[in-house]
């Protein structure tokens, strides 16, 4: 036998042996019930409902299509906002003795069994946790080759979704709105409150034979355009028999609509702003969330139609005011009856925020200034509590929640005085009100001698020829002039010279001690104050800055805080806009020793004389026996030194004998009205009111 032939024989023998061995291989291992359940649960864990369906018995599949099965699960899980789903088995395979096979026959084939599993998830109503048992049945199926195979399949029934659920039952979700927190003043008066009002609406199918005439009549009665009604009636959800909200009306006006066909009413919850225009810029208002806001806050639980703060405190404190919605997930019988609660989370009201604001003082100041374009801030200078923040002209925030007509919105929006502009958050040139700070810096740096008398001839002054045609102008020629007389007569030239002696670097360094250039330490956004747009560039800008012109910009609140140094031994009080739960604030300082105590004492006395002396520029605010200390200021806004422009008038003052109120008031457009002298009588009346009605 050749070697080649022998090799062929050997290989043939090996192949035949291998084939024989293959024929004798054991059949594929049969899937255990636990493995079948594990596969079903794994698909459930992944929300692969189609794969779950494939694991059901043929009988269960015959009762519903794969699409219907998957859609049912998907809708339920989306409806309850299920996340963090966990599905896992909790029991081992049963022994044949405990199966559906003949009892006591360990060799009998297992055909039916029941295995336990555990489900957990987080939902919009809180966690859902349960254990349940799934029935499995060994089923004869055809494999892809057409051969019969034994497979374990799930006998599906509604209780697999949730225990206690039967055929025909539904999983329902019921939500309740968390009430919005209210905004109160220091004395408990409501600034933004929850109330009810009558919602007037139309049932389109009941408008009668002349619907256009009916809508026109209703529009006339409401003071709106018929197009506004048509717009609401054209919404996609509107049906002939549904109530379509049109406007909120006062109950005493309901009789006007009695003979209008198709009109109906519903009582609705509404946000109310009792002080209206007087606190509009402070409180702001709420409105329906916009698509843009919804996109930004989609992960914070907001939904289409939700109300959200649109301006003011309502917007700034949205997260605190907003209530937490409640939800209940339950199994409902076919007749709608609640069978079993799966999860429940009660609604929670938002926080009630109590402000330091004195609403009555706020109203009194608003009434004094409402005809002007103005801003004002009033503080308690020792505690730092903000008592009033005023911006005029104003608007009624109630209109935004009751229903604002296009006509009214256009009137406000087109008003050249800009009633929507929140002036108390904006920066303005403080004018001579800033001279207090220049004086303090000069005294503390030793560059200003308060007793030294200067002779400054004329009403105009220029440093030298390097200034060209530029000059500093003053109103009164008073010689000789010292610090006290410079404050009493508000001498621009004196303070321009004082600023030049301090020098730009030191001026910036000293100004920073007063928080100039910093954000105010408040939740409410105020514009940051500034000395200049891009540093104190050159002597002219420095000189102008010394008397509050140039590029100095400050809010009325920051100006008020600067003057608090005069009652706090030279320290700037920290402002407070909200009260602690106990209704109090702990006095704190924002900038300690912004000026020396002796400097503060000297300047306070000078400002008392600036008001008490008959020839002082602040004498218009004088109140016998009240010891008002104050400083006027007139800020010029014009393109050129000799050109025409406008003037803003300031007065900042407090009662030095009883410093419970410090007010900084600025009125725009006082040119031709006496400048700052136009403002002082207004502030006087504010102080007279305060003396009669001290803030609690």
Task: Please describe the topology of this protein.
Elements: H1 3-23, H2 33-45, H3 49-54, H4 58-63, H5 66-79, E1 83-89, E2 112-123, E3 126-142, E4 148-154, E5 170-176, E6 183-184, E7 190-202, H6 211-222, H7 226-233, E8 244-249, E9 263-272, H8 280-283, E10 286-288, H9 291-296, E11 307-309, H10 312-316, H11 318-321, E12 326-332, E13 338-345, E14 353-354, H12 359-369, E15 374-379, E16 386-392, H13 398-402, H14 406-414, H15 435-445, E17 460-461, E18 472-473, H16 483-488, H17 492-502, H18 504-512, H19 538-546, H20 556-563, E19 572-573, E20 589-591, H21 597-612, E21 628-638, E22 645-655, E23 662-667, H22 680-692
Parallel strand pairs: 6-14
Antiparallel strand pairs: 1-2, 2-3, 3-4, 5-12, 6-7, 7-8, 7-9, 10-11, 12-13, 15-16, 15-23, 17-18, 19-20, 21-22, 22-23
Quickly list its features.
disordered N terminus, five-stranded antiparallel sheet, 22 helices, Ribosomal Protein L30, Chain: A, 696 residues, elongated, alpha+beta, five-stranded mixed sheet, Nuclear Transport Factor 2, Chain: A, Beta-lactamase
Written overview of the protein:
The structure is a single chain. This protein folds into three domains: about 35-165, Roll (Nuclear Transport Factor 2, Chain: A); about 185-355, 2-Layer Sandwich (Ribosomal Protein L30, Chain: A); about 375-390 and about 425-685, Beta-lactamase. Strands 6, 7, 8, 9 and 14 form a five-stranded mixed β-sheet that branches. The protein has a five-stranded antiparallel β-sheet with strand order 16-15-23-22-21, with helices on both faces. Strands 1-2-3-4 form a four-stranded antiparallel β-sheet, with helices on one face. With about 700 residues, the protein is an alpha+beta fold. It has 22 helices and 23 strands. The longest helix has 21 residues, at about 5-25. The chain is elongated, with a radius of gyration of 40 Å. The model is unreliable at about 1-20 and about 95-105 (pLDDT under 50). Strand 15 and strand 16 (about 385-390) form a beta hairpin. GO terms for molecular function: penicillin binding; peptidoglycan L,D-transpeptidase activity. This is Penicillin-binding transpeptidase domain-containing protein. One of its GO terms (biological process) is cell wall organization. It is found in: Membrane. Belongs to the transpeptidase family.
């Amino acid at each position: 036998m050749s070697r080649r032939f022998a090799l062929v024989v050997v290989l043939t023998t090996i192949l035949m042996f291998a084939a024989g061995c293959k024929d004798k291989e054991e059949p594929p291992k049969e899937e255990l019930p636990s493995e079948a359940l594990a596969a079903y649960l794994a698909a459930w864990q992944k929300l692969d409902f189609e794969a779950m369906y494939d694991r059901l018995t043929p009988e269960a599949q015959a009762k519903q299509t794969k699409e219907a099965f998957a859609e049912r699960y998907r809708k339920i899980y989306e409806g309850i906002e299920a996340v963090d789903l966990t599905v896992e088995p909790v029991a081992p395979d049963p022994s044949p003795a405990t199966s559906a096979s003949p009892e006591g026959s360990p060799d009998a084939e297992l055909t039916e069994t029941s295995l336990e599993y555990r489900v957990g998830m987080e939902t919009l109503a809180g966690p859902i946790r349960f254990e349940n048992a799934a029935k499995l049945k060994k089923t004869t199926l055809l494999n892809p080759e057409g051969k019969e195979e034994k497979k374990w399949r799930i006998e599906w029934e509604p209780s697999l979704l949730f225990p206690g659920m039967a055929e025909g039952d539904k999983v329902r979700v019921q939500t309740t709105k968390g009430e919005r927190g209210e905004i109160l003043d220091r004395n408990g008066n409501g600034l933004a409150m929850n109330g009810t009002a009558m919602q007037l609406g139309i049932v389109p199918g009941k408008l009668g034979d002349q619907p256009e005439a009916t809508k026109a009549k209703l529009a006339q009665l409401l003071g709106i355009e018929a197009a506004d009604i048509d717009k609401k009636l054209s919404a996609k959800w509107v049906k002939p028999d549904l109530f379509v909200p049109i406007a909120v009306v006062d109950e005493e006006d309901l009789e006007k609509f009695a003979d209008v066909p198709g009109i109906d009413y519903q009582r609705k919850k509404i946000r109310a702003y009792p002080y209206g225009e007087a606190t509009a810029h402070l409180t702001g208002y709420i409105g329906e969330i916009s698509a843009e806001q919804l996109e930004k806050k989609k992960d914070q639980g907001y939904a289409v139609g939700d109300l959200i703060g649109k301006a003011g405190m309502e917007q700034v404190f949205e997260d605190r005011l907003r209530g937490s919605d409640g939800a209940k997930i339950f199994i409902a019988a076919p007749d709608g009856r609640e069978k079993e609660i799966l999860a429940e989370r009660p609604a929670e009201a938002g926080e009630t925020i109590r402000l330091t604001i004195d609403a009555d003082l706020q109203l009194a100041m608003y009434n004094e200034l409402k005809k002007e374009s103005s801003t004002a801030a009033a503080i308690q200078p020792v505690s730092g509590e903000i008592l009033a923040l005023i911006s005029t002209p104003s608007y009624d925030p109630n209109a935004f929640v009751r229903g604002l007509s296009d006509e009214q919105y256009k009137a406000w929006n087109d008003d050249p005085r800009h009633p929507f502009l929140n002036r108390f958050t904006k920066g303005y040139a403080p004018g001579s009100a800033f001279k207090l700070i220049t004086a303090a810096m000069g005294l503390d740096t030793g560059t200003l001698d308060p007793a030294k008398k200067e002779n400054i001839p004329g009403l105009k002054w220029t440093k030298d020829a390097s200034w060209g045609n530029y000059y500093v102008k003053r109103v009164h020629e008073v010689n000789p002039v010292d610090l006290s007389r410079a404050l009493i007569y508000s001498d621009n030239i004196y303070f321009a010279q004082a600023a030049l002696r301090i020098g730009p670097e030191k001026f910036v360094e000293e100004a920073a001690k007063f928080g100039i250039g910093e954000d105010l330490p408040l939740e409410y956004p105020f514009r940051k104050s500034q000395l200049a747009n891009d540093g104190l560039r050159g002597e002219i800008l420095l000189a102008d800055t010394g008397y509050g012109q140039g590029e100095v910009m400050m809010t009325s609140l920051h100006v008020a805080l600067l003057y608090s140094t005069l009652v706090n031994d030279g320290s700037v009080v920290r402002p407070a806009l909200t009260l602690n739960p106990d209704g109090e604030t702990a006095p704190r300082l924002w900038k300690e020793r912004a000026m020396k105590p002796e400097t503060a004492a000297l300047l306070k006395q000078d400002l008392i004389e600036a008001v008490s002396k008959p020839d002082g520029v602040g004498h218009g605010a004088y109140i016998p026996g009240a010891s008002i200390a104050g400083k006027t200021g007139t800020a010029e806004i014009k393109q050129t030194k000799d050109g025409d422009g406008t003037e803003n008038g300031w007065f900042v003052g407090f009662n030095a004998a009883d410093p419970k109120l410090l007010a900084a008031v600025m009125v725009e457009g006082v040119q031709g009205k006496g400048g700052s002298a136009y403002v002082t009588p207004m502030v006087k009346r504010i102080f007279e009111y305060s003396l009669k009605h001290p803030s609690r």
